[in-house]
Structures are given as structure tokens and as C-alpha cells.
């Protein structure tokens, strides 16, 4: 009996999976679990399939169990609702994916293993189909599809090929070369309209069956931006920010931006009173009072019409080290953070799957240096001073449910969608937290600080949101 | 010589592709091109791979060549810029995809054809690997990867397995069962951090080579919404609209919405003067004057915190046939349009690929009925009265570059990302275009009508945008 406790094929009642019995007991054994753990761990996290993932506090790494954010009496109903929403989401995304399609050895067929794609309702030739089995008086080969129909471009009578334009194509001939000619020119026509589906097409003769995937999908429509004939920074980059009850800081920040005299700045403001801003390159938006931090961020980025957007907080300060052009060069990534007053805050995110919610692990630092950019590294999350591809940033977005303090939630939402980097050589300043003389401004700041406090209720709200929205179980 | 002019393997100087010479000339021939065209046409459009696509006007179908939107002197530079932006986009999306991976017949291996996926930096077992070739004194099998490293869970000395944790794993043994035990437990560890890449892993022995794909990607992070314990419509649906210089129409529309007393309504307004709206469930946003139609639409949807969003225009009129709940049921699709005063405007979109830009074909009507919903059909574009999955709608977005008249551009941007349906049994009313008595409102309406006119300059702008942004060549 072999212990394969950690393999993903384990049955649900945790009986070990038994491979074929060993001829010479003792020869065929697997590495002990601790060894496997050490082989496949990264930053101390075991990144290997398992039934259950766990979040264990260790050293100065805390851990949160997101269920704890709910009251005991609410939790059962929440679990049911989350499961229902998750299943709806999975259905629409075509998840979970079916188990891998395995090819048997010694199949007498040539066929395309990977890479046949067709747009919905379109037709493509299927490359690589051939039969190289033993000679026989009659060759009978059948092709079967589910989400489309089959045909062949070969000009052949119905006595040889039957089922043209149907889900099953039957070829029957004594002429081997004719058989291969027909196979060479088989076509697949997609008959479903879906975002992304995989049809498994089978090719069989006698008892040999080859199966291969045909991917049905429309390619994502490009959304390109014209940089203009002179490639001016103004046509490439828009600056975006959100402000709340800090008009003095905002104005100071806006003035400091004018080392770049004509860059458009988008300002989302959910303060009580609207501001009058005398700058023809500032686009100003007002929101319901206190609508929120991420709502304002999402608003601001929704208005950008250039390829790149530079996010800044309303209390930053541009200086001569704030070279936006340097960040533009690094945009093979999706988001590139800079440094705020010398602080290159970075963190990595790791995800482990599990049936009742994923485990998320956050570690400070970066994965590795970025090729070709000595001051930059690849990571998962950065500071609030970053340049981003507008299109990719908008696709992830800032969740307007996050009204007060929030930061890493954006990078968690972006996990899998955003490639993030961090460069220490582009630096923005930060206005000091000195108290204001003006009594009106001081009153606003006092109000601001109340909203800005990360209260217990807010922390609980955010943990509950991670539990439900991101289908997470826990985090370290 | 066989004419295969229409096959995608045609060389660039348009010489026909020659398959193997025919043994019996006259037996191996392909269907004539006209026959193939009729087999694979949909709505009169030939949906088959070709080098060049064309947009031909026919009947009452016009055609546009998007290059014509540019001045003759500008066009060469625009072409260069578009090609550069397109290549940047392709690089970042991993396009164009490599040609299909073909399996040769009679490979002595079992292996996974499709479906092996691994998250970046994670490890997975590779299922299905086996060797069933002829007996031999020594079996030497090599596995090679490029974007990751290989290992095996088998507890085996280095004399048998070399290269553990490297890109190439060599197995050398005289024991066939041991070989297969090792293969059965091979693991793949991803060592790159990318959004989505496919590694081709090869498995060879003597002259036999099997190749199979391993997909490296992080799954998209779920963004679920809690419908709450009572599943109230208010917690499921937010209404969104944009208004400009039509306060009277907006107010009439808002009042009619109150058949639903507590649904949140988001209003984006880029008029000159802000409005005061006495409705605690209306969220009101102001924008720079005349910032634009799609900018306002993108703003409004960026603020939604519920699972679904209902888009309405500011001159609609809710009545007793406006049953939002009916649309909620149909949301296996992403966007479901209703009917405006009995008009179920629908259109289908077809895309043909081509090297110098795609051809887009638009036809009125629908693809087919929607299973289970007798009043609904599947299509590509609908009216401006629709319910949508907030998350999917935000991922496509409304392009803020479209300031004035625009409609189908949203559905074109959404091609491949949105599944669209249309239901005739949910009807909203439309306020009549009668002139206003009040002189102030009349002045606003006059202004509105100027902005609303689809001028020649605007049409040209939109055609140019299709050329550059969507990499289109022409449309019918």
C-alpha cells in the first residue's frame, strides 16, 4: 500500500489512492511527505495540490480566518449563499475544468494535441489528422464532435464519407491514401455561441480512440490607443487621484504636478463642498458625500482616455526625481509602482486552492528582479504611486464596496489579471502631516481623520468581504 | 496540382499549397471554392480562414473602409503607429498563438493531451505519463520543459533519475515497471510569473517524441456579491443612467422608477449646472461640462455595488410592464436587453481575421432562441435598456473617448467578452419628443440637440477610432 495522501486524485473519504501493485515491494516507493514539502515550498508555503489548505500563524506572520468576521448565527446562511453565488460564477466561467484528457500509447493516429481554435460559428481546417495503423481490406474511421459539426474539403462521394455537416463523420474506404487525403482536409464548424468552450473531438478506428481539444472562442477585441505623431507624454499618460476633505493638500499636489505643464489630471472628490480648481488640464468630478475611497478610485480611472494612467494620492508632492517617462518604459508589465519618499512598499501574494475557499498568503518583498531594468523587481502589490496600462487597470477596477481604508484589496482582486512591478528609481514626495493653521481646514482634517481610522467594524467588513467576494477561507 | 487557395497554410505570395502528389490523379481532389463558400457561410458571410477579408456592399448593406477616415497625408504614419501599438498589445497577450502542436502516429507514450494547469510558482503532478514501447535492455527517457522544472515523487537514486528540479529530467533504467512508476509520478514546477503562458513539455525515447502543453496561469479571482438573506431586489440590482441638459426628462424618469421604491439609482451628469435631486436612493455625480456620453456611462457603472446593473436612458418611462425581476432570471448571459416601447432592436456581429485589420459584419436580428426563455434570443447587440452582470460589464466598459452619439461601439468592444440576449417581454416606455413650454428648459433642449447631432466630423472620428483602437479594416 503506498501513501499518496498528498496527491490530488485522493478520494473524498481520504483513503489513500492505490497505484498498481508493486512487483518488488520496497523498490517502488514515493518520497516521504516532508521531503516533498521541502521540494515544492516557496517562501515557506507549500505550493502543491491538496484537499485542504491551512493558514498557520508563524513568526511575525499572523493569520485570519475570514469566517470569524460573521456572527455565529449568520454564518450558516452566509455559507449557503456564498456557495450558491460561487456555483453561479463557476458555471458562467466554465469551471471547474474537466480532468486532463489523456492519450493512450501507440495510437495509430496523428492529430493536433493543442492549438486548434475556432471562433463561434466559424469553420477551421483541423491540421495533422492521419491514420498510420496496420494494413486492412477496409478502413473505417469515425470522427465525433459535440459543440460543432464536421466536414471535409475532399471531393468524395457519399459512399466514402457520411455525416458531412453533422456531429459524426464516418469514413469508409479500402484506399489508404484516400483515407489520409480525406483526414488531411477535415474541417470543424462551431455551432455554439459561447465565451470560451473546449470541445473534445474523438478520432476512432476499431478499438483505437484519439481525443483532442478544439477551443471555441472569440479573441479579445483590441483596445489600442493612438499615441499621436509626436508621442507626447500628454497623449500617453493621464494622472488620476481621489480626494476627500483635504483641499489644501490637493491644491499643493496639483501645483507640484505642473513640472508637467499639460498632463491631464482627473480628480474624484466626495467631500461635502465642491472645489473650484483653476487649471484647464484638471478634470473635476463630484460624488455623493463620503461615497468612498475605492468608489472614487474607480470613478477616476473610468474617465481615462490615454494608454497609461498614473495613480497618485492627493497628498503626494512631485519633484525632480518624479520621472514619469522612466515608468512608461517598464510597461511590459501592467502596473509599475514607484517609490514614495524612498519607500518601495512591495508584497507578494500566493494562493492555495481548496474546496471551501482559498488560502491567501502575503509576504513582503518581491519575486525576482525585472530583466533589463536594474532598479525594478516583479511583485504582487505596490504603493499608491504607480503607472498602469489603462485597459488592464479598468478590467480589474477598484471595488466601490470598499469605502474607507483599503489598499491590498485591489491587488488581491487583480491576482491573475495583473503583472506588477516596482521600481525604486522613480520617487514621489509626500506632504508632511503637520497640523493646519486655518480653522476651516483644520475642521476638515479632523473630520478626515475620523473617516480615515480603521475601525473594528470596518476591519470586520473587509474580512467578511474577502470571505464572500473572493471566496477565501483564510490568509496569512 | 491541387487548388487549396483558401487554406490558411497558403504562402504569402499566394502560391497554392501543394499536398502530397496524388497516386491516381483525379481521385484526390478538393471541393471547388464556391462549394466550400456555400458550406461555411453564415448570413452570407464566409466564416473560414483566409488571407484577406473583404467588406462588400450588397443589397441594403453598406460598407465602410476605416482607412478613409484619415487624411491621405496622415495615413502612412497612422498605419505605422497602429502596427506598433498592435504588436505591443499582441506581445502582452501572448499572440499570435504558435501553430498547433501535432502528435505523430504510433508514439509509444501515454501523456496528457489537454488540461494540465499550474499556477505560477506552484507544482502539479503530470497525469497519464507512461511508456509502452518495445522491450529493450535499457530504457532511456527524457522529459524537457522550458518555463518550469521537472521532478518525480518516486523515491529513486540519482543513478536512475538525473536532473531533478531542472528543465530536463533523464530516466535511465532496465526495469520497465520502475520506469513507468517514475513517469506516473512526474511533477512540473512553474518558474515564471506570467498572466497566461503555455509550456510545451516533450517526452522522448530514442527517436519517438511526444509533446504536450502545460498551461501556466492564475485563475481569475472571483468577485462575488452577497444578495443578502432575503434576496431583495435592492440588494441585487442598481439602476444606472447618464443625463445631459434634460433635467425635466430625468426627473420624470426618476419618478417613474419609484414603482420600485428603494432601488438605488446612479446618475452621471455632465450638464453645465448641477441638479438638486430629492430622493435618498439617488446617487448623483457631476462631471466636467460635456465630458461625454460614454464617459458618463463608464462613470455610472464604475459606482455599482450590486451583482446586477440595469442601464436606462434618461428619457425612459417605467410602467407596469417593466418587470426587472424577469430580466434577473435570464442572467446566465452577461447582458440581457429588453424592449423600448415594443422595439427589440437587435444585431449580430461577425468578425473575420486578416493581417492588416479585421473585417466586421453587422446584421440585424438574432442567432437563435434562448433555451428555456421563450421570449428571448441570443444576439450581439441590443437597446439601451438592459440588465447586466456588473462584473462583466465593468470589464468591458464604455470607452470615454466616445463623447457624442455612440451605441454599437460598446457591443463591438464587448465582442468575445459578453454573451448578449434580448427579451421582448420586459418593456420600458419612452418619453415623447414633444417641445417644452418652459423657456429655460427649451434653451437646454436646443443645446442638447446640437450636441446630439451626428456630425460628419464625429462620424469620421468614430470610424478612425474603429480603425486604430479595434484594429479593424472595414465593416458591412
Largest interface, per-chain counts? Answer: A-B, 141 and 141 residues
Radius of gyration of chain A: 29 Å
Largest sheet of chain A: 10 strands, mixed
The oligomerization state is homodimer
Helical run tally of chain A: 11
Shape of chain A, please? elongated
Classify the secondary structure makeup of chain A into a structural class. alpha+beta
Question: Termini separation of chain A (Å)?
Answer: 35 Å
* Helical residue percent band of chain A: 10-25%
Could you list the spans of chain A in which at least 5 consecutive residues all have pLDDT below 50?
1-23
Total beta strands of chain A: 28
Indicate the proportion of strand residues of chain A.
25-35%
Description:
Chains A, B: One of its GO terms (biological process) is UDP-N-acetylglucosamine metabolic process. The structure is a homodimer of 476-residue chains. By secondary structure, chain A is an alpha+beta fold. Helices cover 22% and strands 29% of the residues of chain A. In chain A, the strands form six sheets. In chain A, strands 16, 17, 18, 19, 20, 21, 24, 25, 26 and 27 form a ten-stranded mixed beta sheet that branches. A six-stranded mixed beta sheet of chain A has the order 6-15-14-9-12-11, covered by helices on one side. A four-stranded mixed beta sheet of chain A has the order 3-28-23-22, covered by helices on one side. In chain A, strand 22 and strand 23 (358-364) form a beta hairpin. The longest helix of chain A is centred in the first third of the chain and has 19 residues, at 75-93. The first copy, chain A, is elongated, with a radius of gyration of 29 Å. Residues 1-23 of chain A have low confidence and may be disordered. At the A-B interface, helix 2, strand 4, strand 5, strand 7 and strand 8 of A face helix 2, strand 4, strand 5, strand 7 and strand 8 of B. Strand 4 (101-103) of chain A pairs antiparallel with strand 5 of chain B, so a sheet runs across the interface.
